[in-house]
C-alpha cells in the first residue's frame, strides 16, 4: 500500500499543469484557493486507494483523475446556487420557485438604483437626512386609501412587529378558526407568542360569533386580530364575524382592530371571475385600523411585508427598534415602488405589465395560441412527441386554494426514456425546467411561461432530443 500511495503526485506538480493554470486564469481566483482544491482531491484519492474503492494502475492515471476532479469542482463552484428556472408547473405564485416575477420596468429601476448611489435616506429637496419610509409610503396610501404605511421584509415580520409594538404583554383576541400555519411550519400562534402578545382564542374551528369576541374583552385586551385564511378553506357549517362588525366592536371598546390579509390584493380579482380575495382598500374602508399583506403574492412585487392604516399606529411602528431590524433594502424599495406605481396608474395595460397579474388574467385562448405556435416548431424534435392538453392552473403562494384558472400545455413523451427520466433531464438542465405529471405523463403548463421561457424551452428540448438520438 505504501508503494501505491507514493504514486500520488505532490501538490506542486499538479499546480504546474496547463489545465490547472487555465482554471485559475478563467475563474480569476487565488493560487491558494486552487491549491486547497488540489489538496482536497489528493486526499480524496488517498482515501479511495486505502479503502480499495478504486484502483489506479500508474501515476499518470492518478494525475489525470485529480485534474479531472479539480475541473469538476471548479465548474460546480462557478455555478450560481440561486439561478433562473422555467416554471412550467402552472402554479403562478410558486413559493418554491420564487413567487412573483418582477416586471421589466421594476428590474430596470432595481438595476439603476443598485448600480449607482441613491437618495435612500437623504432628502435632496431639504439637503438633509431623510427616511427610507417615505420612498413608497405615498404610493401605498394612494393605492390603499390608508393614512400611513410601513414596509418590512415580509408579512410574517409585519405581523410580528405590529403585535410586539402594539400588544406586548397584553391580550389579543383571535378566532380559533384563523390560527393558520403558513409555509415552513410557521404558525400565527407561534409568531404571537414570540412577540409577547397574549393570545386569547375565541369561538370554534368552524364558527365564531360576535358574542365570542365581546365575552373575551377585559382590562388586559388591547387588540382584535382577524387573520385571512388564504391558504385553506373551511366549508359547510361555518360562520365568522365580518370586518365591519369587528371594527365596530373594537371602536366601542377602545381596541385596535388589525387584519392580517396575507396575500395583498390591490385589485378586485372577483371582477374578472377569479376568487373572492379581499381587497386592501375595501378592508380599510370597512373599518380596519391596520392591515398587513405581502409584496410578492397577489401584489406581484418583491418580497416585502406592508402595514397600512391609521397614522398614529403606523408612527408607533416606525419608532420601534424592530423597524430597523426588519427594514428592507434599496433594491426591494425600488422594485416595490415601480410595481405600486403600475397600480396607481390604474390602466389595464399598466396592470398587465405586472407578470403575476398578467399570468392570472391572461385569456386561455391566448395561452392555447402560444402552445400551438410551440408545437409547430417542436416537430423538429424527432425523438420526442408533444400533445396539446387543456388543464387548470393554480394561483399558488398560499392564495385562493380552491381557485383554478383554465390553461393549456403539452404532454411531452419519448419512446426511449420514461416520463420520470425525462422529467429528471429537464430538471437538471443549466436552466432547469420544472413541470408536473398529468395522467402519468410529463406536462408543461404554458400559463406560467413567457416568450423568453418558450424560446429557451425550444433550445433545451432540442439538446435533449440530440442526446436521445445517440442512445
Automatic annotation (TrEMBL):
SUPFAM superfamilies: PLP-dependent transferases (SSF53383). Keywords: Cytoplasm, Protein biosynthesis, Pyridoxal phosphate, Selenium, Transferase. Pathway: Aminoacyl-tRNA biosynthesis; selenocysteinyl-tRNA(Sec) biosynthesis; selenocysteinyl-tRNA(Sec) from L-seryl-tRNA(Sec) (bacterial route): step 1/1. It comes from the Bacteria. Its main location: cytoplasm. The keyword Translocase does not apply. Transmembrane segments: none annotated. Its cofactor is pyridoxal 5'-phosphate. Its EC number is 2.9.1.1. The modification N6-(pyridoxal phosphate)lysine is found at residue 297. It catalyses: L-seryl-tRNA(Sec) + selenophosphate + H(+) = L-selenocysteinyl-tRNA(Sec) + phosphate. GO terms for molecular function: transferase activity. InterPro entries: PyrdxlP-dep_Trfase, PyrdxlP-dep_Trfase_major, SelA-like, SelA_trans. It is found in: Cytoplasm. The keyword Zinc does not apply. Belongs to the SelA family. Converts seryl-tRNA(Sec) to selenocysteinyl-tRNA(Sec) required for selenoprotein biosynthesis. This is L-seryl-tRNA(Sec) selenium transferase.
